[in-house]
Specification:
The complex is a heterotrimer of chains A (308), B (567) and C (391). Chain B is built from 18 helices and 24 strands. Chain B is of the alpha/beta class and 567 residues long. Chain C is built from 14 helices and 16 strands. Chain C has helices spanning 15-25, 40-51, 65-77, 88-93, 95-103, 128-131, 146-163, 188-194, 222-234, 236-251, 276-289, 307-314, 334-343, 368-380, and strands at residues 9-14, 30-33, 58-61, 82-87, 109-114, 139-142, 167-172, 180-185, 212-213, 258-261, 268-272, 294-299, 301-303, 319-324, 353-358, 388-389. Chain C has a 7-stranded mixed beta sheet with strand order 3-2-4-5-7-6-13, sandwiched between helices. Chain C has a 6-stranded mixed beta sheet with strand order 10-12-11-14-15-16, with helices on both faces. The chains are: A alpha/beta (308), B alpha/beta (567), C alpha/beta (391). Chains in contact: A-B, A-C, B-C.
């Protein structure tokens, strides 16, 4: 009996569906310019596997606009429209209109923007497209600052974090903008938060989003070792701790009304989450406890919403 | 416009498109040059395998069981192990003691799984696959576990094998030493049957040095393997030791198992702390005796298996530790007891064992009708020969004695003591014979060799625990209470059901072994991990060395090394 | 009014309504627009026209002009024919996206209603809004009548789609946008004959042949790629001649990118853009009646700037009088400045004297009296080096 020739079935940690989806042919090509340990790339890989070749990406100014590669190359493997910073949602609306007028119904439009282009400069066009219930998927990959331009503060930067424009002496003093609340108020068909450390949840949300007509949005927690002053090897650990500490809850909102929490946090302490990120190393016990309070407050609000 | 290995070269302005647009993909960009540490897949040795004396590839068997491939698992066990059903009962399972699962719910019941597969093999009449006969004969002297193991592995390699033994039946200490309440005779018989079915021949009642000689054996074989055990019991060295009621433990056990029950008196004193002492004590207990074990160190230092000691205590065997006999008490020609002196423990010797020392003037006496000595053995006198032996053991280099065609294995080498060790030793001797006969270099056979695992042991603190949850061990039911068990010699411990064994196999972490859990492949930001021919592979030319794969591997099957700089 | 006919029909409609008709007849597929005075009736008319022809056009009521142009740019990249309209603040807000349309080589057609820029809110006509977009890589065509607006919008599609350059059709606020005149609305058949189906830009989003558009373009190639935009724009003049000739054969109407009026033997030539071109015709006639050899050139195509053509037309003239309804603050009137640099290359002997006048900012009426006074001023006085600001 030759032990070397024994074959075993792969024993995936994930659901059959996730394992199968992740096994699909890679559409994204290697050789892209993401930092080592960039949290956006596993998302893009899975997105393209779920959505397939019949996809058009709309990418405003953000890290991915650079990651995709310089002229004359592109790593994405599907058509990409690079658009101006604040126009992800308006550009996606235009493309959808054009495709509809040309009778092309089987191609999905996916806007793929960072937190800066979504929470701040792009919020106006995002709100308008949502209000018009434009038929596309908007994914915000949130690395919690303007990373592409060198780690400046955005309204998605969490409370207490260091950025180049909120240095240690004056770290971010406002909590992260509540994007879920904003999008729910627009009554869009589907909003969900998602996280790399929970691939089954992420894939099922991508699949749900693919099959809904109208404005869908996924808010993805995107670990950025470079900008958070963390070790690249902690890409998944950061994501996991964000959920386990309650900092980044995983939930869905359907039609702006039905809130469902899709992952209960475990008892992980904020200290463990902060300890592996240089952007939080200046925080003392008092600040940490204030942040902990805020996290709890927001969780309680979310629980109330889910009980409505 | 030219394209060269995926890179585009514009030869003139006219080549340029009028807008910024992509004309090719980024695959030419070998981002692998960014890294200084690179990941590589390498199965490690799980601690259970490192600890297994018998050389079972435990993780592979667990994976087969988990997939319900019981026959393959049993066949796989048999290829490496002649007595899984026996070892599954008698082995002290060092594998379980180092099992990483003990951190999260309790070690895997590996021995029970081995036992289950052994019983399965018996039920299904499975045999290992043997190479066709190469018409070369090897004679094995001694049908104890080591000799049997050597014969087994030689037969697998294609040799014609005959085992000779001085007894009238095979098994050695497996039948004459280990009591039936640990190893039922039927189980042993079935395992021995396998040898017959494999075509291994036996010649019983043939003692080396009497009915035959080494030269005679050498004349009718390509090689001879000595699995003769030790055979000479150590003595107390105290007055009265030669009294007939002071008997040797190994001899006692054989008599008991042959059905010749020689013991007459009531109270028994057993001297010694090894398994033989415990076997004697518990066997005599079952015959209704009042038994006390006297041992010169403490319970912690007793070499007997922990379970033996625990069960003996439950059954009512008494222990008097830190005592040493100084004199056998004889009155009117009858043995009435012992005089003993109390001991204390000094600092450890260079082998890490505490040195016992007498407490002067602390002598005391106890009553006993029978004294049993179980102090260990050395090589039998009738085999001692300056050419072959030294210091009470057979002298070998890579299993080969001073006489080139003569090899040795097992307890007679002086450092054994367990069936598992005998199996390992027998396998090595078989390999050594094979290398000798073929004229090639010998190397120690390794259970994981075919899987190309590295020698490094998979440590739990390198695992990523987030992918495991605490799951509790299914315990082997000890089917009989102490009161029940000491009434007879029926087997004490039961088997695990197939469902429980499957559960255990699922609970096994598969330490250091890539099970294609998909973490690395899904998480890699650079799509630099692909599945090829059923294995994962790192695309070095793209991997940027972010180390996420290594961090997220639940079971330490992927590691980092410095990138070799090509100058 | 809302039915397209198989034959042309004559209607009394405003400049804005004409613009809407032009876009509609050109079969625009996507309209993304945001209201601003005095553009609103363009998109209102267009909304009405398209709503009565379901499936003909997708109307996106976006939330700002920036988004309007972004959506147009994107829809064009996805291969649709697009249209929008704006004015003043709206155009300024679009500025970033105008650059995107130009650099992206997208055949977007837009109507801009010239309106003064704030602060001080002012809804009346001046040209600063469109002229301050002159560097963005768009063709700019200034119209003087509602008929011209309609005709030019249709022609603009042909021009834009051939050159892959966005095109802006411009009309004065209120005096043109809201002034009704008799307009011949061509039949759909005629327009279909003139303007083929969307000449699908070869560079567009196609899942069958995926490309990424608009990504990082480095210093080694950016200049050469942008040079192609410049060269394409320069080709607009000769191409427009062909286009206009074809339009003339179908409708009998022709405008010319430069329309000279009584220039051949003129000593003093007035230059205007927009509705002032109409008003000035009357003044030229009056001056001629007084024995003054006056002429006027209407500049329709401001971008690309017809430097060579203007040199040819003005070579040897004694005086050229530029009327700018705009000012590049800190520099001078824009038409004045650009003309001056074009005339620089004429030999000294043939260079006319150049007079500049800035008037009509914020929508103050440019009357025949005003035009007369600037002509007199030029006739009587030597030229200065800068424009004169007059009421």
């Amino acid at each position: 009996m030759n032990l070397e020739s024994i074959e075993f079935k792969p024993k995936s940690n994930y659901s059959e569906n996730t394992a199968r989806v992740s096994d699909e042919n890679e559409i994204l090509r290697q050789g892209h310019l993401a930092c080592p340990g960039c949290g956006v790339m596993p998302l893009m890989r899975l997105l393209l596997k779920v959505f397939g070749h019949q996809t058009i990406l709309v990418v405003p100014a953000c890290c991915y606009a650079v990651i995709d590669g310089p002229f004359p190359y592109s790593a994405s493997g599907v058509p990409v429209m690079h658009c101006a910073f604040e126009t992800a949602a308006s550009s996606a609306s235009g493309i959808r209109a054009a495709l509809d007028m040309r009778g092309i119904q089987d191609v999905q439009v996916v806007a793929f923007a960072g937190d800066g282009g979504t929470f701040d400069i792009g919020l106006q066009s995002l709100s308008a497209a949502a209000e018009r219930n434009e038929n596309f998927l908007y994914i915000c990959y949130d690395n919690e600052a303007y990373m592409n331009t060198g780690i400046q503060r955005s309204s998605a930067t969490p409370l207490g974090a260091w950025t180049t424009t909120t240095p240690d002496e004056t770290p971010k003093s406002e909590p992260k903008k509540n994007l879920g609340g904003i999008m729910a108020a627009h009554g869009i068909p589907y909003f969900a938060t998602a996280n790399l450390a929970y691939p089954d949840d992420l894939v099922s949300k991508l699949e749900k989003a693919k099959n809904i007509h109208g404005f869908r949005m996924i808010h993805y927690f995107c670990p950025c070792p470079t900008g958070w002053k963390a070790d690249s090897r902690h890409m998944v650990k950061l994501s996991r701790l964000a959920v386990q500490t309650g900092v980044f809850p995983l939930y869905e909102v359907v039609d702006g009304k039905k809130w469902t929490i899709t992952q209960q946090p475990k008892q992980a302490d904020l200290k463990d989450y902060f300890a592996i990120q240089g952007r939080f190393k200046h925080l003392g016990a008092e600040s940490t406890s204030r942040i902990r309070q805020k996290v709890e407050q927001e969780w309680n609000w979310l629980i109330k919403m889910s009980e409505l | 416009m030219k394209i060269d290995s995926g890179k585009i070269l514009f030869e003139s302005e006219d080549d340029l498109p009028p807008v910024a647009m992509s004309l090719a993909n980024t695959a030419w960009n070998q981002t692998g040059s960014w890294k200084y540490l690179e990941p590589y897949y390498q199965d490690l040795t799980p601690p259970c395998v490192a600890g297994c004396q018998a050389g079972n590839d435990i993780v592979t068997f667990m994976r087969l069981i988990e997939e319900g491939r019981l026959e393959e698992a049993a066949r796989g066990v048999l290829q490496n192990n002649p007595f899984p059903a026996s070892l599954g009962r008698v082995c002290p399972h060092p594998c379980e003691n180092v099992c990483n699962r003990k951190e999260m719910g309790g070690e895997i019941a590996i021995q029970s799984a081995e036992r289950f597969l052994g019983d399965y093999a018996i039920r299904q009449g499975l045999l290992p696959s043997c190479a066709p006969s190469n018409s070369k004969r090897v004679i094995v002297v001694g049908a104890g576990p080591a000799g049997l193991a050597a014969a087994y592995f030689l037969r697998i390699l294609g040799y014609d094998v005959t085992i000779i033994d001085s007894e009238d039946r095979p098994g050695g200490l497996l039948w004459s030493g280990i009591p039936p309440y640990r190893l039922p005779r039927k189980v042993l018989e079935h395992e021995i049957q396998r040898f017959h079915k494999m075509g291994i021949g036996f010649e019983f009642n043939t003692r080396l040095g009497e009915k035959t000689t080494l030269d005679e054996l050498r004349s009718r074989s390509a090689a001879v393997v000595l699995g003769i055990g030790l055979g000479r019991s150590r003595t107390l060295g105290v007055p009265g030791e030669d009294h007939p009621q002071v008997i040797d433990g190994i001899h006692l056990l054989k008599q008991l198992h042959l059905g010749k029950y020689p013991v007459t008196g009531g109270r028994v004193a057993v001297i010694g702390g090894g398994n033989t002492a415990l076997d004697c004590a518990r066997s005599l207990l079952r015959h209704g005796h009042d038994v006390t074990i006297y041992y010169r160190r403490s319970l912690n230092e007793m070499p007997a298996f922990d379970e033996e000691i625990k069960e003996a205590l439950e059954e009512g065997v008494k222990f008097e530790i830190l005592t040493l006999p100084t004199r056998v008490l004889i009155e009117d020609g009858k043995c009435t007891g012992l005089e003993l002196i109390r001991m204390t423990l000094l600092d450890k010797d260079d082998k890490g064992r505490a040195i016992p020392a007498r407490i002067e003037g602390s002598e005391f006496t106890v009553n006993a009708d029978l004294v049993v000595k179980a102090l260990g053995e050395t090589l039998a006198n009738d085999f001692a020969s300056p050419v072959l032996s030294e210091g009470g053991a057979v002298r070998t280099a890579e299993c080969q004695t001073a006489i080139p065609e003569v090899f040795a294995c097992g307890d007679c080498l002086g450092n054994g003591g367990t069936v598992a060790h005998a199996v390992r030793s027998g396998r090595e001797a078989a390999s050594a014979v094979d290398a000798f006969v073929q004229g090639i270099k010998f190397h120690v056979p390794d259970a994981l060799e075919q899987r190309k695992a590295s020698q490094e042991i998979a440590e739990f603190d390198q695992f990523n625990r987030n992918y495991f949850s605490v799951e509790y061990r299914a315990f082997s039911p000890v089917i009989r209470s102490p009161k029940e068990r000491k009434a007879d010699f029926s087997e004490i411990q039961g088997s695990l059901s197939e469902a429980r064994v499957l559960q255990e196999a699922a609970r096994c972490f598969k330490c250091g072994t890539c099970t294609q859990c998909d973490n690395c492949r899904i998480y890699c930001p650079d799509a630099a991990i692909v599945r090829q021919n059923g294995k994962y592979r790192v695309l070095d030319q793209y991997c940027k060395g972010c180390m996420v794969c290594v961090e997220e591997c639940p079971r330490s099957a992927i590691h980092l090394r410095k990138v070799e700089v090509q100058l | 009014m809302t039915q397209t006919a198989t034959i042309s029909q004559e209607q009394v409609i405003t400049g804005n309504q004409s613009a809407a008709w032009g876009a509609f007849l050109a079969r625009t597929q996507v309209v993304a627009a945001y209201p601003i005075t005095p553009q609103t009736s363009v998109i209102e008319t267009l909304a009405e026209l398209t709503s009565r022809s379901p499936g003909r056009c997708k109307f996106l009521n976006v939330e700002s002009e920036h988004s309007a142009m972004a959506a147009c740019v994107a829809a064009s990249t996805a291969g649709a024919r697009v249209f929008t309209a704006t004015s003043s603040q709206g155009l300024l807000l679009m500025h970033e996206m105008l650059h995107w349309a130009g650099g992206g080589r997208l055949p977007v057609v837009m109507v801009n209603v010239n309106r003064a820029t704030a602060p001080g809110w002012n809804i009346w006509s001046d040209q600063n809004d469109s002229l301050s977009q002159r560097d963005t890589g768009w063709v700019q065509l200034y119209c003087e009548s509602a008929q011209e607006v309609l005709d030019t919008v249709i022609q603009a599609y042909l021009l834009a789609e051939e050159l892959l350059v966005p095109t802006m059709v411009i009309q004065d606020a209120f005096v043109l946008s809201h002034t009704a005149e008799s307009v011949e609305i061509p039949s759909q058949e005629l327009v279909d004959q003139f303007l083929p189906e969307q000449r699908f830009a070869p560079f567009s989003l196609d899942v069958g042949n995926p490309s990424a558009f608009g990504g990082l373009l480095g210093m080694d190639q950016y200049q050469e790629v942008r040079k192609k935009l410049h060269e394409s724009l320069r080709a607009a003049m000769p191409l427009s001649a062909r286009i206009e000739s074809e339009w003339k054969s179908l409708t009998g109407r022709h405008y010319g990118m430069l329309e000279p009026y009584r220039c051949e033997d003129a000593d003093v030539v007035l230059m205007t853009m927009g509705t002032a071109s109409s008003t000035s015709r009357e003044v030229i006639d009056r001056l001629r009646n007084k024995g003054i050899n006056a002429g006027r050139i209407k500049v329709k195509m401001f971008r690309p700037f017809p430097a060579a053509e203007l040199r040819d037309l003005l070579r040897g003239k004694s005086k050229v009088v530029v009327l700018d309804r705009n000012c590049s603050y800190g520099s001078d009137g824009i038409l004045f400045t650009e003309l001056k640099s074009a005339l620089y290359h004429l030999p000294e002997k043939e260079k006319p004297e150049l007079y500049g006048f800035i008037a009509g900012l914020g929508g103050r009426d440019i009357t025949p009296v005003l035009i007369h006074s600037i002509m007199n001023e030029a006739l009587q006085n030597p030229p200065g080096t800068e424009s004169v600001w007059i009421k």
